[in-house]
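Thread amino acids onto this structure.
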């Protein structure tokens, strides 16, 4: 796996094979960040990466200047890998790594973020609850963006905060926004 842009662009890292994660492809990640770089200033923002897997999206965010990165993951081996990689990149002081079930975390959280990214397991039965919870809990700051990675089997175009979809084969990024006040 490779960080595709920013300060750490080109850096490679290899998660152990036993980590139960499905990393976002480099092509899709590059496309995602092309959109984000044109939609918001990542420098100094507060982010939330849920179902973080290897932490790849958070490394990209840190590489582009995000200052406050919260990562939610429940697998202890994966968390160890994220901590190790963050330390190697020198960004461990910017990361708050929480071992938790994502839905439990979301229901208890009172924080707001500029950017939220969710890459749940594609077979997750209650994936449709994610946008509902995030907006019910008012987790996005005004002007904030929430990106949900999913398969083409799901369609969120009728959601009131839907902004756009971008397909990369069977992978889809759906963008939701919190209006500016």
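Threaded sequence (181 positions):
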């Amino acid at each position: 796996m490779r960080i595709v842009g920013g300060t750490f662009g080109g850096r490679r890292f290899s998660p152990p094979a036993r980590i139960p994660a499905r990393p976002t492809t480099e092509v899709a990640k590059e496309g995602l960040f092309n959109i984000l770089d044109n939609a918001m200033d990542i420098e100094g923002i507060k982010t939330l990466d849920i179902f973080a897997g290897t932490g790849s999206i958070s490394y990209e965010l840190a590489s582009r200047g995000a200052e406050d990165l919260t990562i939610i993951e429940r697998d202890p081996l994966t968390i160890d890998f994220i901590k190790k990689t963050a330390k190697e990149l020198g960004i461990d002081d910017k990361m708050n790594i929480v071992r938790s079930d994502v839905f439990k975390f979301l229901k208890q959280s009172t924080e707001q973020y500029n950017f939220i990214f969710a890459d749940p397991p594609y077979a997750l039965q209650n994936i449709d609850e994610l946008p509902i919870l995030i907006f019910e809990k008012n987790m996005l700051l005004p002007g904030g963006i929430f990106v949900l990675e999913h398969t083409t089997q799901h369609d969120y175009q009728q959601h009131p905060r839907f902004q756009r979809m971008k397909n990369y084969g069977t992978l889809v990024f759906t963008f939701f926004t919190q209006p500016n006040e």
